Fold each of these.
Amino acid sequence: MDGVAPYRAAGRYRVVRALSTKEAAVIQTLLADVPGSERDRMARAPASRSGYMSIRRKAVQEGWLKLRYIPDLRLVPSDGIHFALARPYADRWREAVAALRSEPRTVHLAVAPELLLAVRWLGEGEAAPEGPPGPPGELFSQWWGVRAAPATGGLPIYFDFEGAWTRWASLAAPISYPWSLAGGAPDDAPSNGGAKGREGKRRAARKILDLPVPGADEEGRMAFSPAYLKARERSVVDDRWLVRRMMPDFRRIPPLGDRRVLEYLFITGRRRPDRPARQLLDELVARAGVTPFLFAFDEERTLVGLLAPRPEARDAPGESPIEVLARHLARIESGVQRVASTVWPVDHEYRGLFGPG
């Protein structure tokens, strides 16, 4: 049947309608970092106003995309973002997840049976952990850490799925990819008005982040949407002190033709001397035809997040991703989280960074 595809769920097969080209293009627009109002975002979508709103509503209601707010670093100064990639012992899996979840300032935790990814925003003057939580060697068989410094370019891509989606959907070009935490607010954004002004913006941002993350109910989604925020809170979003981001849930997004995103692939390795990390990113995109959704590095190690399986390149790349990675990284390690078995006990939750209140 044209436009439909089989999908296995709960041990049974059911028929799922495949995405249309227009739906895929609107999803790209929603994933992109487009400053301004919903009207500005709508203007970039290759659909009529009613078509755009219909697809957007469906994407949110059916859980294809999840709205999240990420604070600008001026609101919550940080000495680094720490990424931990870990393999827990099978019989200590629950304890390992609990240990990572209990780490202070953890804002994101993606867990699968064989691999865990934890993201922490370190406070000012806070040192990065030297090893995994818990007694040494008891919870994790392998653990790698990267402390990225967004202010100095160490985090050029922070959970930006627009580039990967653009390739998957065979769309012309990304709209805004890649997006980084550094300098989330544009140069012409209003100043914070000193300590008093910044504190006011922190309070307004905290009110937004205190809202329950919306589920399937219409009331929760409306309360979380910028259009339904009070004027003071909405200005924090409009001026990009809080950056609105849509995050995809590939468990729920219908297939593109007969293809689905099946895995999150994470690759890490030690940087080779005289091989700048940004050069690795540029070569992955230009030579290997891949667009990471996550790219972080420090003085010793690089972490790359990709979607798998990789779609066929429209223009045959000159090199494979492995060739590019091997030229830049030593002692490469990789791991996957299967989309079907990945859950997020902490899903881009930043309210804890603002302290009690």
Amino acid sequence: MLTSDGKVVLDRHRPHYDSKDLAAADKPRILAQFGAGGGGDFVHSRTAQEDYERARKLLPPGVTVAMAAQFYLKHNPTGEAVTLEKAREDFLAHHKLLVGDKSRGYKDYSWRTKAFVAKFPGRHAASIVRTEAIDYLLRVEGGARSKLNHKRALCRWGNWMLKRGIRTDNPFGGIKRDELPKVLAKEVEFLPLESAEAYLRACERYDPELVAHEVIQFFAGVRADDEMASFRGEWVKCETREVVTPAEMTKTGVREVINGLEDNFWAWWKAYGRETGLLRPKNCKKRLWRIRILSQIADHKQADALAGMWIDKLLRQPFSKSLLDKWPWNARRRTFCTHHVAKHESAAKTALILRHRGDPETLHNSYRGLGVTKRQGEKYFELMPDKVAAPIRPPQLQRKIAPLSKNTQAREPVAESQNRNL
């Protein structure tokens, strides 16, 4: 306690007894209380203190008793030992119940955990230590971003094991960014005005069924990976000039409305849009690769000749890989952003269309200063459809009816072409 002048004085509390007999009767209680203390479920007794002191003498410097206890439980689990294979199976089953097995998250967790388990086959999940986790991440193929994404997926798995009592800690949870290769920011890549126009004209000339799928990204900024796989024509409301994505289909989990789109989007949609059904056609991936290759060929006669080639044969051409490698990541949405910000000289309207929930300044800093002028932005949104009367398509699969033989009642149709892409 403190005195009036601020000095500390030790004040010992001694209970008062009215008689010697009452004091003697309370002595066992005081002796039992002496040497014992603590809080919660733990009682710090003399025995516990002696046990702690013996443990500290056995442990090397820097190793706490808690760390020693975790190490013991890893190698001497009190419950049923769970292998990594079993832990992965149960984790994926749990995640499947939450989001289904078609989501990008599920597929990402599936292949990343599979790769980790393949490096430690048959190991108990509780036996993996932090140094093994770090060494594994450093040896993962790919760049710094790939290693970081791998770490995040495995960390989610580790947290799940921790909650289920499979582990007493998360070996991936304590790994800091400075323990992995540094992720370097890259400049935004997009299609210049001329390249974007050439690509859209190639869609019209060589595969008009793709146009609606592409313009919804080039002129409305719809997310390619998260939304386009399930994007439907009925989400485009021509009466109200809005694009309405249902909550269950959005990245944010809430219904999202895009309005304020440029007039050229509605012109393209009128020419190629669909009132109902999925916008993504069959065999979409290879068909998109075909257009990306053809759109980069300056000689139109050569492009027309290649357009009549089977898709698989076109993809095997020596120049195809280098042309596909030039295609920027997330090109359509980024091309829209770059030209939209340039046209309006502000990111506020672009952020609203993109459904960004952060500060528009972040978007401004990302897409300004990329060399696109206001006039180029205006010309981008002046691009209008120009339908082609006779699009050039790859050879179609031709089928013939084969005659019945004596030993065979029916035979498979004979194909003149091995191309089954379209």
